[in-house]
Please model this.
Amino acid sequence: MDKDGSKPTELDTTIVKQITLILAIVICLAIAIFIILWAQEPEQRPLISNIELVDAVKVVDVLEYKNIHYQTNLQAKMIFINSQDMDKARLALARVGIVINYPEIQQNITPESACALLADKMEEAKINARQLPVYRQPWFEKITRLLVGMVIIIVLIIAVVRPMLRELIYPNGMDKEDDV
Model:
């Protein structure tokens, strides 16, 4: 019943259904956009796990000079960078004499020996990366995120949007099969 005591008209219920459908579609689109952005978010890895062991200002200056995006976590005393920029950052730091080779960090060595040491470590890492199982490969997580996102979007479409569209198109549960 409406405020004036009359029953809601078919037009009123259709408008309510359309508004509900639009809200559901907007929510589903927002979830889909969030999932896509989440899947494309780069993986952050720690460049330095304890900034007390190095001259953090020097490290940050090198990263900014080379336009390498970084994040600092002062409570954990860490500097994070995108995983695909890790080699670029290590090479830039080696050129100024800081070699990050966990668990040890060498500072103030000659740039030539730092670059040679880093080149050896990078070559060793490439060889080890080829021997990793598929689920440990760098691309595997991104593909997994995209597949999970696609499954969630498909489930949203099948479970939410499709029934709402059916109710809007065929009011009162009338399907095309019912007309025959």
Notes: The radius of gyration is 28 Å.
